[in-house]
Known about the structure:
The protein is an alpha/beta fold and 298 residues long. The chain contains ten helices and twelve strands.
Amino acid sequence: MKYNQLGKSDLQASEISYGCMSLQDDHAANARLLHQAFDQGINYFDTADLYQKGENEASVGKAFKGRRSNVLLATKVGNQLLPDGSTAWNASKAYILQAVEQSLRRLQTDYIDLYQLHGGTLDDPIDDTIAAFEQLQQEGKIRYYGISSIRPNVIREYVQRSAMVSVMTQYSLLDRRPEEETLKLLHEHSISVMVRGSYAQGLLLDKPAKEYLGHSAKEVGAMATAVRATAGELHTAPAQVAARFVLDTPGVASAVLGIRTAEQLAEALRIKECTVLPSQARQTLEEVLESKQYEQHR
């Protein structure tokens, strides 16, 4: 497994990381799968207080209670759970300082390696949000912080105003919008990209083609066909091609893959066997569809 530095931090994250959002309700089954991933070299595990109303964090915390110093735990904040079971966006300093205590308790740890704002808008009290993260860093409750966002205007603000080390964003062969500005901006500022959505909801692998982010079902099918053809030429699997496309992009530190089953974990682990996507293969894939641009939050 290859490990990459996150931004200017001292965190070294596996290039294939574990997106925990799809974990099951069975803590024991989750622990077995998470331990398997760890034993095969995955050291970065990403969750959020929003997932399963906190139970996701609890399951991850229970699994790694005895291995805490060997893993990187990342979680997210900003979606406040209301008494009626709904959620409301809250990026205030007071809320973040309160929410982190609950995440620490559920994760059964006294520090979080990477604490991320789970979204963000220009209407947020951005300086207060940053102040909350920096206070938590000074207190030792978090080691570093970042944001999870697809909004170029929000990402620009945090690049200019914060000391974040990473941005989690969606990027794939069917969503190349970050190429217009975001990827270059973050790379120039030594801020790492954690990619989600590398498989485009499975449309690049085995899901039936459908409309996706402005691409017609026909276009989506054409890209999936191209991915399969490339995989055949390279004697690898479509999942490896799709993941390597994002991982070979400058500034990308890790592909955060949603893993729910042993089969999905095995598929994710096979990606490390394909060390690089040949430049000609990458160019061929890029030429299948015209890259889109963000229409909102520019």
